[in-house]
What does this fold into?
Amino acid sequence: MKKILISAFSCLPNRGSEPGVGWNWAVLAAEEGYDVTVLTRTKCKKKIEPAIPEEVKKNLHFTYCDSSKKMRKISIYLEYLHWQWKSYKYAKTLTQKQGFDKIWFLTFGNMFLPIKIYKLNVPFVWGPIGGGEVVPKQFWKNWKLKYKFPHILKAFLTSTVIHNPFVMLPAKKAEKIIARTEETKNIFPNDIQEKTIINLETLLDIKGFIADIPRTKIEKKSKGLSLIYTGRLVPLKNVELLLRAFQICKTEIPDLRLSIIGDGNDKKRLEAYVANNHLKDVKFWGNLEREKTLIKLSESDIFVFPSLREGASWSLLEAMALKKPIVCLELNGIKETTDEKCALRVKVNNNDTISTLSKKYADAIIKVCKISDEERKTMGENGYQRLNDFFSFERGRKLVHEWLD
It folds into this structure.
């Protein structure tokens, strides 16, 4: 039985996003017969210990390293950096005592955030990692500085990666690199790309998800088709483009409706846009309980997702699990998650502005609205099949062996 040490800064059961990444891959590796030790933050312990599946308790172990509350108050990224340096000492001691066959670095999966665990003299798997995914400049150049700065920094980091020791040292040391997207793989030099494979980080327990879907649905009371967006309301999610596109759609499809589920610091501005443009049939629901979100998603006809940058979006995977046709942008992780059979993907060109892209996005929504119910159903079925083929736990079991054997 191979002994694997997993470094997972973020690791919690029954969660999406980064916490789910750490937990799901660790459990799958244990289920597949590896002796797995997970190094994570002490504050995760209370939720982790009661949730360890009975069938893997013999070969799934967790050990904990404290993270800094002071750093977390400033930024989660400072907490992360502090924990990486501190947890390295724990990992070194564990390695000396237990003699791991492989170290797997899981979360956070940002290649530009420094790590130290690769320095241990053990075969090292890095990823899934991201960092090469960039937002086209025309969409962030007019944002406020606090939103724009990360993209300026990202542009600098991606253009200087071969001179960045925090990236190149672990990349050279790694036995295998798992890149979330093609964009991330392509910023590595050719010799590093040869040992890099592309795979998104998120998996969905389809059986468990379906069991969570409420059996009682609220009946539709309105005529016409309904669009739905679920996710944060921040500039990166590009919801203003969706509202602009919806405004165009309403001139051709007057009874079209749009539900927006989520919250964020862009919400007031988006609500003001709706009010100032006298947009009808737009409903901001805020953050809803999971059950209510699933009900709303189940009842809607088309999932709209205008985000500018993603890995494997949990919102997108849930829409695919509920067999919803999708209208999205053909960018980074969204492009990797979907295909042309389940989503109408709008290409973003270098000369696109928010106005021109809004028109293209509106045209895509109108096109999906005007196809038959049966064709929309087929798109949804195709999305579900793609989810099952590439992002299910069953797929994950196969990948674990490819990455760790």
